Amino acid sequence: MWVGVVFCASLLSSLVIAVTVELTDGQIDVVSARLAEAALQSWELGTRAQTILELNATTYSVFNTSVTLPPPSTIPAGLVADGSLDPFFAIAKQIVTNRTVSNNNTVGPQPLIADGSAADPASIGVSVLLANLTGQDGGQVNYSGAATDQLNFLLEKVPKTSDGAISHRVSEVQLWSDFIYMVPPFLAYYGVVTQNRSLLEEAHTQISLYRNYLRDNSTGMWKHVLLGSADNDPGFWSTGNGWAAAGMLRVLMTMQQSQYANTFTSEQSDLASWVAEIHAAIYPHLDTTNVFTNYADQDPSATGNFYDAASTALLAGTVYRASVLLGQHTYVPFAERCRKTLFNTTSAAPTANGTATLAGYQHLTTDGWLTPVVNPHSYGLEGSESAEAQAFVVQLHAAHRDWVLAGSVGQQSGAAPSVARDSSGALLAVAAALLLYLY
Ligand SMILES: *[C@@H]1O[C@H](CO)[C@@H](O)[C@H](O)[C@H]1NC(C)=O
Ligand SMILES: *[C@@H]1O[C@H](CO)[C@@H](O)[C@H](O)[C@H]1NC(C)=O
Ligand SMILES: *[C@@H]1O[C@H](CO)[C@@H](O)[C@H](O)[C@H]1NC(C)=O
Ligand SMILES: *[C@@H]1O[C@H](CO)[C@@H](O)[C@H](O)[C@H]1NC(C)=O
Ligand SMILES: *[C@@H]1O[C@H](CO)[C@@H](O)[C@H](O)[C@H]1NC(C)=O
Ligand SMILES: *[C@@H]1O[C@H](CO)[C@@H](O)[C@H](O)[C@H]1NC(C)=O
Ligand SMILES: *[C@@H]1O[C@H](CO)[C@@H](O)[C@H](O)[C@H]1NC(C)=O
Ligand SMILES: *[C@@H]1O[C@H](CO)[C@@H](O)[C@H](O)[C@H]1NC(C)=O
Ligand SMILES: *[C@@H]1O[C@H](CO)[C@@H](O)[C@H](O)[C@H]1NC(C)=O
Ligand SMILES: *[C@@H]1O[C@H](CO)[C@@H](O)[C@H](O)[C@H]1NC(C)=O
């Protein structure tokens, strides 16, 4: 018994120390600065815009359950004063004003920005809708028309499968798991702000269609790229599974807080179970490094495979969100392992919130870049300085912050981690058993 108490106490103290692993506000500002510099492509701008809401302007984040949708059209004074939304609206303004210049004032269905991807420009759509809703630029910038043209482009101009799935590509029908983050959240939000229920329904329909094509029935993971004439990628791209889970969470929360919530009960439960399904499928592939490989089921030494901290961060963020918002706690211990590994330092972790230095971090460079990461512009290759990876770090930090605020539920709950090599999981189980025995 005495041995048990000492053993248990030392385990608990190490757990308590581990729980405090988190980045300071100063460090997150450094990571945010790299995000701002690196985000240039359509989906990078859209992902950055969403990230700004999740970290700094939570009144306008669909993950904030105390704000019903549509959100306030008058921006709260505190948010105006602290400028948190400035970079968010700057993205919308840059895109919409550039659109007018580059298209010579052409009106009608068109993407927000020229792109071979039919889906990625739509990721910027929520920022354009909010710029319109909150009356940015006093009516001098045509945000409403730009959003409408983007919507109509998706609905009318982009090729579709015979059953109606909107292509991820402009030139031909091809489905990518990434689509789920780029398009359905925009459709749903458009429906909310223009009082158009059918667009929320369309968001769910698109996800359902994509899931039918891309979800692998034996593993439960989503394939990356199918259909089309070339460049298929049937592998279980980890980031793609993260895009799908995160996009579904956004659509679900948009529905749940909307004026149409009680007319979409089965759709909301679909989305909740489809998020859970991805977590249940992919987390068993997490090995003792606590970092996913680029293709989750493949060995890190396989061709085109390597450890990828970007997808690891994205997925872990979705686990904290699912815990707080959907009561899904099973994979919280896995997300904790991932977060503590990505945010771990061999130096003494800083205690002052203003500390911005990043010394001794295995997965963040001293400049704040997440590493190692997949090349976001060539998904089979390892890269560096990835904009989306920076966004995923900030999203993970914000999701964890909100999970702590909500009481850190599920920290030690859930299934024992199922990868046999996982010694930390085994220790947790021993600690829990001892606690039960002692009390
Ligand atoms: C830093 O401040 C934030 C609030 O801005 C708080 O949630 C977080 O716990 C603080 N972190 C540290 C390491 O003190
Ligand atoms: C959040 O706000 C802080 C403080 O203004 C800023 O330094 C940081 O860049 C912001 N992060 C993002 C992702 O906008
Ligand atoms: C949600 O928004 C409200 C109102 O702006 C704000 O007071 C609150 O802190 C936000 N909650 C979270 C969890 O971000
Ligand atoms: C733009 O419109 C103006 C006026 O109609 C025309 O003179 C010009 O050639 C157009 N430019 C392009 C690039 O289409
Ligand atoms: C401006 O629009 C053109 C055409 O859509 C696009 O190629 C370019 O990347 C855009 N530039 C910026 C800064 O948005
Ligand atoms: C833009 O705002 C106006 C005025 O509030 C509103 O009537 C219109 O529906 C909005 N457009 C979109 C696409 O949200
Ligand atoms: C705004 O854009 C829409 C869609 O392209 C267009 O129909 C409308 O005429 C534009 N409004 C103004 C004032 O330019
Ligand atoms: C909702 O949006 C769709 C697509 O733009 C449109 O066809 C339909 O008329 C809209 N419904 C309402 C009620 O505005
Ligand atoms: C999964 O099963 C469903 C129903 O049998 C089928 O429609 C779908 O094509 C299958 N998905 C894949 C990716 O094989
Ligand atoms: C964090 O780093 C320390 C020091 O290198 C190491 O002992 C510990 O195992 C690491 N923890 C995780 C969760 O990676």
Automatic annotation (TrEMBL):
Residues 1-18 form the signal peptide. The keyword Coiled coil does not apply. One of its GO terms (biological process) is carbohydrate metabolic process. InterPro entries: 6-hairpin_glycosidase_sf, 6hp_glycosidase-like_sf, Glyco_hydro_88. The keyword Signal applies. GO terms for molecular function: hydrolase activity. Keywords: Hydrolase, Signal. This is Glycoside hydrolase family 105 protein.
